[in-house]
Amino acid sequence: MADEVILLDYWPSMFGMGTTKIALAEKGVAYEYKETDPRAKTSSLIETNPIHKKIPVLIHKGKQICEPLIQLEYIDEVWSDTYPILPSDPYQKAQARFWGAFIDKKFYDPSWKVWGTTGEEQVTAKKELLEHFKTLETELGDKTYYGGDVFGFVDIALMGYYSWFKAIEKFGEFSIEAEFPKLTQWTKRCLERESVVMSIADSDKIVEYAYVLRRKLRAE
Amino acid sequence: MADEVILLDYWPSMFGMGTTKIALAEKGVAYEYKETDPRAKTSSLIETNPIHKKIPVLIHKGKQICEPLIQLEYIDEVWSDTYPILPSDPYQKAQARFWGAFIDKKFYDPSWKVWGTTGEEQVTAKKELLEHFKTLETELGDKTYYGGDVFGFVDIALMGYYSWFKAIEKFGEFSIEAEFPKLTQWTKRCLERESVVMSIADSDKIVEYAYVLRRKLRAE
């Protein structure tokens, strides 16, 4: 076991997908990847994350760490001698945590409603999501990355969600690029990083997956 | 301005109330307290927390830090030479963050529904809240405090919510002490700390406040 790192994750997961993988890639940490469908509630997921039964689950030296943003902090602390994910200044750190949590808390619910529902529920969710995009874009301003010139915590949180952009645009019938040019340029800059490219899912496959899931949701 | 610390908070707030005040007390940090009713959405709240417009807001050296758990981390980092709030081991720290977030995310919604709603909505909320209490009690096990012998992050998060226990018992018609003896003993041990006693609101006043708010909610 020793220093072994295992990641239980699911390729199209809206949050698991990128966040933790990008952080491990930035740190150059090798790990074993175990594809784990959270809808199947496999025994490995129940054993390793009995409280939320959610992916991603990071297992290091036989101990599990749950929740993507908590995993980012853990990874940053354990592999502290390589690429820093959080800034060292307490105030900058608090701000990064605030905006990471903003993405984590605010994006998920309206996003799945944009592709998973119809009618008024979808319209309300789209409106809400666009407001959150606007808030985040305004906060970014003219910076290269969230923290300035350095790719870090908030950028990773955002890119962990990026693969769903195309599906959200398709079902929500709007263009992120047209409505949020700065947000778009931001994600484009992040997409230049190898850690991101190697960690996130293919947007077209996510669109296909969203179609399947949408049909399933409607049948239920 | 210099090293000035200001706390915008509201005495009966379910989360603001205790958490940040307990942490500042443990660290021995003097601060100016400004009573701020979040329902009034005062201009000071809009200026200092424009995103969530929620209390508590911690202002240090003219810069605001929002969200109670992020404030705890900030306080622990800035005043690092006194009482440590988070453990130093990355795994223990991740666990403390997980359970702090569990209290922060899971308790609020069912709690206000227990005193603020009736009928099936209240019954469902009560059932949910009791499950969360059970989960937290099981996680505590036979330890003195969440982290073992040391009062810290998770204990502070719990005690920031404690003043609402009596109101929840009253409207939910159950006894926390009878159903969760270990949780009760845990809060009693925490109540022995001066930082807690001087920071949390009076439970009877919270019951009165819940009555008023309940009438208001029904009238709306």
Automatic annotation (TrEMBL), chains A, B:
Keyword Signal on entry = no
> Which keywords describe this protein according to UniProt?
Cytoplasm, Detoxification, Transferase
Q: Residue ranges of the GST C-terminal domain?
A: 89-213
GO CC terms of this entry: cytosol
- Annotated GST N-terminal domain ranges read 4-83
Q: Where does this polypeptide localize?
A: Cytoplasm, Cytosol
**Record's catalysed reaction(s):** RX + glutathione = an S-substituted glutathione + a halide anion + H(+)
What is a GO molecular function of this protein? glutathione transferase activity
Question: What is the recorded name of this protein?
Answer: glutathione transferase
UniProt source species: Brassica campestris
